[in-house]
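Appendix B, Record 12. Input sequence as logged:
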Amino acid sequence: MPPGGGDARGQAGGADGVRRVERVFGVLASFYGARFADMWRGVDPGAVKAQWAHALSDVSDEELRTGLAACRGRVWPPTLPEFLAFCRPEPDTERAFAVAQVQAGRRAWGGDVWPDRSLYWAAVAFGWYDLRVMSWQQAAGRWTRVWRECRLKEGALPPVPVCRAVLPQPGRGVTDRETALRRLAALKRRLVSGEKSCGKRALHGVRDEGVAVAGSADVPGAAGLCGMTGACVKE
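Logged structural output:
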C-alpha cells in the first residue's frame, strides 16, 4: 500500500528511510511485476535502497503518493530521477492563472476560496485589474515569474485575509417587500425635503431679483416679478 502516516519530510536515509523505500518498492512491484525486478538485476539491492532513501529523504508522504499515482499511467517502472520528477511535477501555470481569475472575480462579494496562500499573494502582486482583464497569452511570462516567486516563499507568506463583501453575490441582491417599501419611503422623504429646500432657495432668489427691479417701468417683467413675490418697493 502507499506510504501513509505523518509527513516524513526530512527523514534521514537510515533504517527508517530504507523501510520507507521498501514500501515504495512494494507498490511499484505490484504495478510492474517482473519488469520492476529486472531493473535491478545485477545491482546490489541494499545500495539501491540506500540511494533511494537518501534521495527521498526530503520528499513528503503526500509527494510520494503523487509520484506513485503518476506511475499508474506508465508502462515501464521509473528510474530514481523519473520518480522524483513524478513526486514533484511542474505546476500548471496556465491552470493556476485561470483559478486566480475566477477567485479574483468572486472576491468582490466574499465568495473566493484560494487553494493556497501563494496563489492569493501572487494575484495581489500581479494586480487585480490585470488579472481580470488580461488573457493567458498576455499574462503568461509575468504570471509565471510572480507565481514562482510566491511559491518559493510560501512558508513566510501571511494567511489569505478574510474578504469583507462589498457587493451582493450575483442573484442574491434581492430584498424583501417590506424592506424595499421602507427604503423607498425614506428616499421619497429625502426627495421631498430636497425639493422644498431648493424651492425656498429659488424663491429667495426671485424675491431678491424682484426688489432689484421693482419700480423700474422700463424693465420687462418687473411688474410680474413684483406680483409673484409681493416684494415691490413702494415709491
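Residues 24 and 140 are 37 Å apart (CA to CA).
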